[in-house]
From TrEMBL:
Residues 308-319 have a biased composition (Polar residues). Pfam families: Arrestin_C, Arrestin_N. PANTHER family: ARRESTIN DOMAIN CONTAINING PROTEIN (PTHR11188), ARRESTIN DOMAIN-CONTAINING PROTEIN 5 (PTHR11188:SF172). Coiled coil: none annotated. SMART domains: Arrestin_C. Belongs to the arrestin family. Residues 172-309 form the Arrestin C-terminal-like domain. InterPro entries: Arrestin-like_C (IPR014752), Arrestin-like_N (IPR011021), Arrestin_C-like (IPR011022), Arrestin_domain-protein (IPR050357), Ig_E-set (IPR014756). It comes from the Eukaryota. Gene3D superfamilies: 2.60.40.640. This is Arrestin domain-containing protein 5. Residues 332-351 have a biased composition (Basic and acidic residues). Residues 308-351 are annotated as: Disordered.
Amino acid sequence: MSTVKSIKLVLPEDEVYLAGSSIVGQLVLKLRSTLVDPVVKVELVGRGYLEWNEEDNPHLDYSRSTVCRNQAVYISKAQNFHVDDGWLDSGVHTFDFHFSFPLGLPTTFTSKIGLISYFIQGTCSGREIVLAKEKRYLLLQGTFGNHGEDVKDMDPLVVEARKDAVYLCCFSRGSVILRIYLQKNIFSPGEIIVFMTDISNRTCKYIRKVVFAVHCIVLYRGFNSRGEQCSLEDRSEVTRLESRTNTAPFQVMRVTSMLVLPKPLPVTSMLMRNEIMSFRYELVGTSNFPCTSSTMVGRVPIIVAIPENSSGEQSTENPCENEGDNSEGNALDDRDISEKDTETIEIKSSE
């Protein structure tokens, strides 16, 4: 029977730590009998790892894949506790510990390709044998880094997407214009993104639904077995909202919507540093073209950032539990819309 009855890490529940902040806790050790020459320590570790398979040579007639991997250690600290007289009596013993997270740490992240994780581990050993240990994973929110001063509030932003089609069944032409308005494009994790969308339906069919989502685009960088550098870009949805518009033929509807960013959330990578993962974000509006298999997509680049001078830990309370949709179906014409927001920076794209 082991001398150690139990070992427990006492930490704040569901805490999201900010890079540059501190973590304070206790290691509680309960012994059945006296333990001689014990080694009691607590470690703080942060690591990143990624792995994916890719085709070795797509020009070959047969399939041959290679594995790309990469890893990084972001933080590794240990605190060893001094034991008076070289022994611990039976009973409960409490050890206080304190660690500081350095600035510039990346945010906790998990995907099918890679992960960034942080954990606290407490161990109790005797005569080079680990008698008991406990590990607790942490949530860490990264900050914007030394380049945070380069990000400034931008003017209102507009992105317009247009899709044209020909209906052979009735020998008519039509188009749909999706115009997304943002008052700003810099947001913090947990913040609510409020935006307006004008849906201009120039077809003879109804537009029933528009789907809005925030996409996270991750660029992974690794090395294959031959030491050659390889990269992979992957896209995933961070948050999503479906808006029932029912825009009538030859009508324009304005919809006001909200999306809530989760916490923690990796910040946008602004500098091309030698990182194993870099992140960027887009607000994407998607609508199926009426009576066709085509899809119209409008993309607005946004920045997720937390200034490095932010003090204290972030609160984990979510200002809005679910994504809302404040739809205001106002019938407008194209002339009324174009006369508004004259000072808006407009980026037009067509598919």
